[in-house]
Amino acid sequence: MSRKLPHILVEVLSVLLALAIFGVPVSYVVTNAGKTPVAAAQMLIAPSATTQYLKNFSDVIAASNNMLVRAFINSTIITIMSIVLLLAVSSMAGFVLDRRKGRAIAWINFLVLAGLMIPPAVVPTIWLLKSIGLYKTFLGLVLVEVALSFPFSVLLYRGYVGAIPRELDEASFMDGCTGIQLFVKVIFPLMKPVSTTIAIITSISVFNDFVNPLYFLPGSKNVTVQLTLYNFISTYVNKWNLLFADIFLISLPPLLFFILFNRKIVSGMVAGAVKS
Amino acid sequence: MAGSTLRLYSYAFFLPAGIIYILFFIAPTFLSFFFSLTIWTLSDWRFTGLDNFRIFFTEPSLSIGLRNSLIYAISTCALKVVLGFLLAAFLCTKLKTRGFLRSLIYFPNILSTIAVGIIFSSLMHPSHGLINTTLAFFGIQGPDWLGNPKMALFSVVLVDVWKGVGVAMIIFIAGIQAIPQHYYEALSIDGGSSFDKLRYITLPLSRSSMNSVIMLAFIGGIRSFDLIWVMTKGGPGFTSDLIASIIYKQLQGGFYGLSTAGNVVLFIIVSIMAVPLYRSLTKVEVDL
What we know:
Chain A is an all-alpha fold.
């Protein structure tokens, strides 16, 4: 309304400002990932005349016996295992949490909400994992990731099941469905949109996770991508070009997901934050 | 009818999730209350009462973590709420580029914290870093962002906000979009300005999104570990140590009881904060 800068000027200024604040750090990575060590040490954003992207990428990949390759494989395995287990257990739990009422359910809801906020107890978890022989194993880390992602995803599922009419359950019951058949054949297929959202969000959060692998999966044999990146900080002192080449490579999978599923990620974030 | 279908919803469906959640989250939390009162070697423990907590609050290199974590949580939370709200309000106007701007501002959130930490360690380099060379271009002498003990914590706060403000913005946008348009129309008929709309309609009606943002940002901030760990490792000295970085340092040092006491301190702070926030959240739902 009233006394305003020309509309087009507002658009241009806000885009320029946003690019300066949010775009510059990203293009800084992209240009420096292809520089020579000497050029990268100058810390300029402008691309240098000669680039050596391929050499930097192959150097990073080959470093410490192809550690990055192993890390990519490990992180992919851990991410996929976490998603499959998380979807399986939290979809079932969300189904019951919505359909049943009563004191037990109120308690479970309380514990789930608490899990959204309370920080995990690090050493006791290590101790527990050790005593059941799962410390420093993929399965151990996966179970912890699932336990920590469970509150968020079960709330999404619970909200979604609430919108599935109970008449459907009753009709299936009339047709002679058992609870398991009802869930597997009717409810779970209907949950597909929310399952996709949770799978995408979890894939990014587990793939990018640094803290839990650091605590529960230490050791060079089992490195994940984020741990390799962290270890490279001390290996590559003053070799910013290689550090940025590494960042470039390991940011590609989440970036791809972001481009493909931008809307899903954002809507899931909002649903989780607002409903909880 | 409801009685007969109830048997479809067996608690067995909850069992797999329940076992995992109890074993790997609830049980460790309860164990932490006990082991925080011990000197613990993982294979053996000796009861020491509240000694670990006494050390945690009196040893300067440890108690600074509590102070810093509170500063960190409050300042990241405040900045995310204010900036997130203003960005959301701005990007809910009829801007042609708003879709692009929203994606751009949200984008850092999908980068890993370690990557963001490394990028900004480079950008914040005292002499060569892009931030200080840009400031120098305008004749301003930039600070040593991460090397100055008075500055380091604040610098990491800024990076945290850079990475996380997009989430706050998205939550606010969802709230603002749910506000019925005719409120704004009514105010324009009464001659209200754009600022009046923001102040008297958008802000009060965004209260429930604001509660979500405050809760997420504060709890995220108080638990925060990885960004400070990759950017300063708690340094220089202990000046930017957070509770979570101290928990990890004690874990590395083999002081498992002390480390767990840090976890319990964190638990208590989060619980104290969570109760009023949870109340206000459920109250808002009743209002609607």
